[in-house]
Automatic annotation (TrEMBL), chain A:
GO CC annotations, alphabetized: precatalytic spliceosome; U4 snRNP; U4/U6 x U5 tri-snRNP complex
Official protein name in the record: Nop domain-containing protein
Chain intervals for the UniProt region annotation (Disordered): 344-370, 461-499
Biased composition (Basic and acidic residues): 464-473, 485-499
Location within or outside the cell: Nucleus
From TrEMBL, chain B:
Top-level taxon in the UniProt lineage: Eukaryota
Main subcellular location of this protein, as a coarse class: nucleus
Annotated Gene Ontology cellular component terms: spliceosomal complex; U4/U6 x U5 tri-snRNP complex; U5 snRNP
Pfam families according to UniProt: DIM1
Coiled coil: none
Family: Belongs to the DIM1 family.
Species assigned in the record: Candida verbasci
Location of this chain's protein in the cell: Nucleus
Any GO BP annotation: mRNA splicing, via spliceosome
Protein name: Spliceosomal protein DIB1
Keywords assigned: mRNA processing, mRNA splicing, Nucleus
Task performed by this protein: Essential role in pre-mRNA splicing. Also essential for entry into mitosis (G2/M progression) as well as for chromosome segregation during mitosis.
SUPFAM superfamilies for the chain: Thioredoxin-like
């Protein structure tokens, strides 16, 4: 945006014809520029001797321009011959930008500044009015309503009932009741001089708010012609901001919807302010989104930006000039947001199953016994774990150099040599499928070797090829294991030298 | 809050009927006074598990002031609250290690702990036992 302003400034400087407008435009530009440099919130609150300030209108940067802005609005809203659509599409060729278009560009910037100033002055009022009626700010959250109430009841807290009908004009009945109840407990006073300050501040806020509404009405008026559907969804101000950020309606229609929330994101540092929402752009500040809880903001923005693009395409094709389809989309959005806002359905705790103990279905039988035997400790191992009393046991060293006691494995439980019978149950086995697989593997290897190495032989010797002997891998495998088992038990351990 | 949602037994007759009428579930009765803080805490705990254990246990609340009939027999007046367990009109005892096997009269703050105790008692009751041993020993109960 800053580049635009610079361009505009340069543009304006070159124009000599419109001197009066030039000064006004440059004032606005200066305002926007200074706002870019430093937040107005900070500057006003950091103002030295803020308590001594009598005229708050001097603090506001926008206030001096109000009258000129109003004139402009009236002037441009009467200019009907200029087609806004042309204005926006003319952005692509920067040369012929009309006054009105520039004005609309500036308004976009101005609305954020005005909003900022309103919050600043409302905080100022709050700080001072707190002494009189501290609860009011928590009772009325809307800043404009808050100021209106103060302007109405002033210091006259005791006779608040007289204002009841007037309060009900802009507040709901129960709110008015709450205020009246809360007022009854207050008995403070502020010196009149101080209070005049609050009043002047309040008028300023209301003035600014009025200006803001006028600006948005002006924009709405213009936008209702070119983007009726989009502006029914997100309102005129956001629409114009988005339109200007994308360039034209045509470009907006061809923008992917995921890019909409990113439009108008000021700085990356905004990530620190809001935890969940990364993209605090124009869409974030539109009324539909602003008051939503932050948890669903992201998904709401996604829904709305999708609909914005649809509406922009409808607007581009001019199939619904009175915003009817936009209204339909808006109601769809509202239904969806309501669904998001609805609390999740509560499911009761799942009841635990009753801890009924059933007897196990497995009872025994030959196969089960065999299966259990397979995992039992072998007699040999049992004997190894026993030691003869008063005698040193034989040991062997295993391959890691660890000494392993042999216990009574040599003698068996009875102490006689060769008593232990090796049961075949505990020996390692292979499943049938495993045996088959190994056989297949060996077969394949043999075939491969025939083709690889003996190719010459095959060619030269012709058909006199002798088939290699097939060996049964099953017997070899199992045989090996049983053999080893037997060897192990028969192995003569190296006896330790007795002392 | 929990005491509002759980069923109350307002007379001794109701208490008897509740114990008698339940066929295959453990009846857990909390005797106590809702206005006492410990009782409130245990009510909250009971309410939070009542839905979970509904397959094998049901919880009732009895106010000691409204139904004083059992105070003497079960010596209920000594504690702010106590939990008693019944299965098919039989009082189930549980050895918590506290010396009092008749009732649970100490604070429990953990839901799962209480569910475990109830499950253990239910298992024992199904097997026809009158006394079961608590899964956790509460003899060194420091709360």
């Amino acid at each position: 945006m800053a580049n635009y302003e610079n361009d505009l400034l340069q543009d304006l400087e070159s124009d000599d014809e419109i001197i009066q407008q030039d000064s006004f435009q440059s004032k606005l530009n200066d305002l926007i520029q200074s706002n870019l440099l430093s937040d107005s919130f900070q500057t006003i609150l950091n103002y030295p001797d803020i308590e001594q300030v009598e005229d708050f209108t001097k603090l506001s940067k926008v206030y001096p321009l109000i009258n000129e802005l109003r004139e402009k609005i009236i002037q441009f809203s009467n200019d009907e011959e200029i087609d806004y659509l042309n204005l926006l599409s003319s952005l692509e060729n920067d040369l012929d930008q009309s006054e009105e278009y520039k004005f609309i560009l500036l308004i976009n910037e101005l609305t954020t500044i005005i909003n900022n100033e309103i919050t600043v002055f409302v905080t100022l009022i709050k700080m001072q009015y707190k002494l009189l009626f501290p609860e009011l700010e928590s009772l009325i959250l809307n800043p404009i309503d808050y100021v209106k109430v103060i302007m109405l009841i002033k210091q006259d807290l005791k006779n608040i009932k007289n204002y009841e009908t007037e309060l009900k004009l802009f507040l709901s009945g129960d709110k008015v009741l709450i205020i009246i109840m809360a007022v009854l407990q207050q008995s403070n006073n502020i010196p009149q001089q101080e209070f005049n300050k609050i009043l002047s501040c309040g008028t300023l806020v209301l003035e600014l708010n009025k200006l803001l509404q006028q600006l948005s009405n002006f924009l709405a008026d213009k936008l209702s012609k070119i983007a009726p559907n989009v502006s029914t969804i997100v309102g005129p101000i956001t629409t114009s901001q988005i339109l200007i950020a994308t360039g034209s309606l045509k470009q907006l229609a061809s923008t992917p919807s995921c890019n909409i929330p990113a439009l108008g994101v000021r700085d990356l540092s905004s990530t620190t302010k809001t935890k969940n929402i990364r993209q605090t752009g124009y869409l974030y500040h539109c009324d539909l989104i602003k008051y939503l809880p932050p948890e669903i903001m992201r998904s709401a923005m996604r829904i709305i930006s999708g609909k914005i693009i649809l509406a922009a395409r409808i607007d581009l094709s001019k199939s619904s000039p009175d915003g009817e389809l936009g209204q339909k989309l808006l109601s769809e959005i509202q239904v969806k947001i309501d669904k998001l806002l609805a609390p999740p359905e509560q499911t009761p705790d799942k009841a635990l199953p009753a801890p009924v103990e059933q007897k196990s279905k497995k009872r025994g039988g030959r196969r089960f016994r065999k299966m259990k035997e397979r995992f039992q400790m072998s007699d040999l191992r049992k004997a190894q774990n026993k030691m003869e009393f008063g005698k040193e046991e034989d040991t062997i060293m295993d391959s890691f150099g660890k000494e392993i006691g042999l216990g009574m494995s040599k003698y068996g439980n009875n102490g006689k040599l060769g008593q232990i019978q090796i049961s075949s149950n505990t020996s390692a086995r292979m499943s049938k499928s495993m045996i088959n697989r190994l056989q297949q593997q060996q077969q394949q290897q043999k075939e491969k070797s025939i083709f690889d190495t003996d190719l010459d032989e095959l060619i030269f010797s012709g058909t006199n090829e002798e088939k290699p002997k097939e060996t049964k891998p099953t017997s070899k495998w199992l045989g090996g294991i049983t053999k080893r088992k037997l060897n192990e038990s028969d192995e003569v351990p190296n006896k330790k030298v007795k002392l | 809050m929990g005491s509002v949602f759980l069923p109350h037994l307002n007379t001794a007759w109701h208490v008897d009927q509740a114990i008698l009428s339940e066929d295959d579930r453990l009846v857990i009765i909390r005797f106590g006074r809702e206005e006492e803080s410990q009782c409130m805490i245990i009510d909250e705990l009971l309410f939070s598990i009542s839905e979970k254990i509904k397959n094998f246990g049901v919880i009732y609340l009895v106010n000691l002031d409204k139904v004083p009939d059992f105070n003497q027999m079960y010596e209920l007046d000594e504690d702010p609250f106590c939990l008693m367990f019944f299965y098919r009109n039989k009082h189930m005892m549980c050895d918590f290690g506290t010396g009092n096997n008749n009732k649970l009269n100490f604070m429990i703050y953990d839901k799962q702990e209480l569910i475990d105790i109830i499950e253990t008692i239910y298992r024992g009751a199904r097997k026809g036992k009158g006394l079961v041993i608590s899964p956790k020993d509460y003899s060194r109960n420091i709360y």
